[in-house]
Input
Amino acid sequence: MIPYPASVHEAEGAFVLTADTQIRVEPPTAPLLALGHDLAAHLRPATGFELPVVTGAPAAGQLRLTTVGADPALGAEGYQLMIQPDAVTLTAPQPAGLHWGLQTLRQRLPAASAWPTVQPGPWLLPCGSVRDLPRFAWRGFMLDVARHFFDVPTIKRIIDLLALHKLNRLHLHLTDDQGWRLHIARWPALTAIGGATAVGGGPGGYYTQADYADIVAYAQRQGIMVIPEIDMPGHTNAALAAVAALNADGAAPPLYTGTDVGFSSLNCDDEWTYRWLADVIGEVASLTPGPYIHIGGDETAATPPAAYRRFIERVQTLVQACGKQMIGWEEIAHARLLPSTVVQHWHSDDARRAVQQGSQVILSPASRTYLDMQYTPAAPLGLHWAGYVEIKDTYEWDPATYLAGVAEDDILGIEAPLWSETLTTLADIEWMAFPRLAALAEIAWSPANRCRWDDFRIRLAAHGARLQALGVNFYRSPQVPW
Ligand code: ACM
Output
């Protein structure tokens, strides 16, 4: 099981999934019925069993999903799973907890259960009980869809894989120098012009607002919140190229398809910039049911420091006026922040300034969690400015002791960013993300004292068979006994 549950008791015997097994939900509400049908959909292809979802009186041989009698101490995401010879009972106070419990149930079955075609079985679930809830509320993955664009089916596939690992945040880096990827109705040139290319000069692309809403809803059904990032005031060449009036001299620069950073900036002293930003942030907020909007704020070598601080404070007010909380990369901690603003650490000790201002922190240390770093010098994809990052590097660190002045209570959670300068396909994304994302998922979810590399690498080897069944193009690290 990855991530390993908070508490596990093994017992003798097994529940056997058969052609007669039913899935029973109680009470028969829409979210619980949907979870029952999700479970059936996961298990039907390999088992060939119908696994009907029922709502009547309990009977022997059922997989039961229920919120009735759940321990409220399990919270928003916790669950209990009891496997006995005559029934499997998954209990949680909230549907989200049932959803995570279903992922544990899937992982208790043989890996063959994950294949898309009928397999021989038998389908044994070993008896025992699990009581489980997450260490951190924020367990994230970020995908850069700006340097290269990835379509909606690719994003949905990634969401499915995040859910399997109990990751609950998908941060989309929607804009950068090379591309603007979310349609803004008031400013269609942002995508018509700014979305037209990508690193290396390929065709680019963008999400319509309907596409984006589809992604958000698909993620929400899997317990995953989408966090939109509009990077500013730097990383804005695509916007500057699309909207000439954003430039101090009124002249739009050409589109950019290289990989330099730190050369572009919004004009922070022009009121017009803020009127445009109010439109953009307003539309993004209206597409965002969750509480957060990420405004980037990183690598602003082309913005004077005093103007940068004023800019961040004004944008914070704009985000707040839309009823949202601002997130920014660690550089924003140089501005005056509201305690509700969240700061994302990536490489310096700026996060300490954030904590001193009362903000919470998301940890994404580049040398541990940047999934665009090469695994080794021989790896064909990725960069290495933060070093080479093997599975063990992503796994073997404790967020609570990682940064001086940032304690466990200051940490909202952890997130693994995947920047896409060198990535163009789903297969590329999968190879960079897996299995490092499984390592990150475990340190985000499991209690610190359960995270032991020697134990994890053995479980990861078994998990590899499941990833293979699901068709994931993962990196067969020599650190793992596959
Ligand atoms: C970053 O890597 N520029 C946040």
About this structure: The mean pLDDT is 98. The two ends are 15 Å apart (CA to CA). The longest strand covers residues 7-17. Residues 431 and 474 are 4 Å apart (CA to CA).
